[in-house]
Amino acid sequence: MSYRYTFTVFTPTYNRARTLPRVYESLLAQTYRDFEWLIVDDGSSDDTKQLVESWQAESKFPIRYIHQQNQGKHTAFNRGVQQAQGELFLTVDSDDAFVPNSLERFLYHWNSIDPSVKDQFSAVTALCRYADGKLAGNKFPRDIMDSDTIEVTLKYKVWGDKWGFQRTSVLKQFPFATDHDGKFIPESLTWFALSRKYKTRYVNEILLIIYFDEASGEHLSHLNAKTLSGRLTFHRYVLNELISWLRVAPASIFKSAINFSRYSFGLGISPSSQLKELHSTTARLLVATSLPVGFLLSLRDRQRA
């Protein structure tokens, strides 16, 4: 497939007219110019549309704006992937900023991958820092390394926000899971599934600046009917698909066993039904051992709700 641009810089947004200018200013400052800015507005009621139209009238780079009824970030993301005209899909949240040579550096690292194995790769991922200068999470084990999401998470214990692009064609193979009831589905589920087929080049360069928007509304850390089901889905996936990583990352896998039981109890799922959802004897033993802790945590969750 041929693309019009090297990058699609994609921003899903909802009532963020007050913070979107940070993204716009970052794009204006980019040293690499072969990109489009694709905005999917998930039902904003503020003046986002008017703001974007003012930029479209003056901008020296293409800006496309799509408005849809509020359906959630995952739906906006999937729509953005389908509409993208760039070969490389880079998501930027509507309240973040990035350094002037971000696109240039991403492309440099992408082009540095050996052409003979490049079809095995889907992404380049870099570091982030907060507005106060503090690094988000930790660094990768090496300044430049080739790995995947599962390995860097479970083996190398990399944590914290990271930022990078994916090939648009690959994202079309792995759309974000959505639920017709509006339940939250963790993005990690998609990244884990994708990483079982494609590699990522990881680089210890800080390219994104993270800001916190206190007025952003309901946070996904709040446990409710929408988030419990999605979290349960993620930990079920870990126990059924990644149980072979138990020896490498016992603490992570056992934590998933506890949370699988915790969120199951939160949704009223009995212990026997929990065990039936697991494919291996090892996973069932882990969850059986975790039941008391999972139950106690579910009671705490109810008290905090």
- The chain-level structural class is alpha/beta
Run of helices and strands: EHEHEHEEHEEHEHHEHHHH
Count the beta strands: 9
* Strand residues, percent: 15-25%
CATH top-level class of the largest domain? Alpha Beta
Describe the structure.
This protein is α/β, with parallel strands linked by helices and 305 residues long. The protein has two domains: 5-210, Spore Coat Polysaccharide Biosynthesis Protein SpsA, Chain A (Alpha-Beta Complex); 225-304, no CATH class. 40% of the residues lie in helices and 21% in strands. The protein has eleven helices and nine strands. The protein has helices at 20-28, 48-58, 73-83, 102-111, 149-154, 168-171, 188-195, 225-241, 250-266, 271-276, 281-304; strands at 5-13, 35-42, 63-68, 86-91, 97-98, 121-130, 144-147, 162-167, 199-210. Strands 1, 2, 3, 4, 5, 6, 7, 8 and 9 form a nine-stranded mixed β-sheet that branches. α2 (48-58) links the parallel β2 (35-42) and β3 (63-68). α9 (250-266) packs across α11. The protein is globular. Residues 214-220 have low confidence and may be disordered.
Keywords for this entry:
305 residues, alpha/beta, Spore Coat Polysaccharide Biosynthesis Protein SpsA, Chain A, 40% helix, globular
Concise structural overview:
With 305 residues, the chain is α/β, with parallel strands linked by helices. It is built from eleven helices and nine strands. The protein is globular, with a radius of gyration of 20 Å.
List the helices and strands and how they pair.
Layout: E1 5-13, H1 20-28, E2 35-42, H2 48-58, E3 63-68, H3 73-83, E4 86-91, E5 97-98, H4 102-111, E6 121-130, E7 144-147, H5 149-154, E8 162-167, H6 168-171, H7 188-195, E9 199-210, H8 225-241, H9 250-266, H10 271-276, H11 281-304
Parallel strand pairs: 1-2, 1-4, 2-3, 6-9
Antiparallel strand pairs: 4-8, 5-9, 6-8, 7-9
Helix pairs in contact: 8-9, 9-11
